[in-house]
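Here is the promised in-class demo. Please do not try to memorize the tokens; focus on the logic of going from shape to residues.
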């Protein structure tokens, strides 16, 4: 990917706006190319989740095939997938417990 060195350089900028655009560009590169360069993976990993790199990391996990991800991103993919599944099950579990409670109260 030809733009990778420029994106990585912009990620290191002191200007917050330019950094934001650089991380967005990394997310777009993951969407368009289905992979990133090792330098971009390293920059995303160094920034970590929860900040300006959160959405680009999610884009990478969504649009880059699992087999092409480096080990840290594979572990992150597993973590995010399990967490999303548990978050989708939790409300249904709570409703099921409430339904069982209602049925038991009716029987008493």
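The designed amino acids, position by position:
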């Amino acid at each position: 990917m030809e733009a990778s060195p420029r994106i990585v350089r912009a990620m290191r900028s002191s200007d917050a706006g330019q950094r934001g655009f650089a991380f967005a560009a990394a997310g777009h590169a993951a969407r368009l190319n289905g992979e990133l360069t090792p330098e971009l993976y390293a920059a995303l990993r160094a920034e970590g989740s929860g900040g300006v790199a959160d959405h680009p990391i999610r884009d990478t996990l969504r649009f880059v095939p699992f087999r092409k991800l480096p080990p840290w991103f594979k572990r992150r993919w597993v973590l995010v997938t399990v967490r999303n599944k548990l978050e989708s099950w939790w409300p249904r579990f709570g409703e099921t417990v409430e339904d069982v409670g209602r049925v038991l109260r009716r029987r008493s």
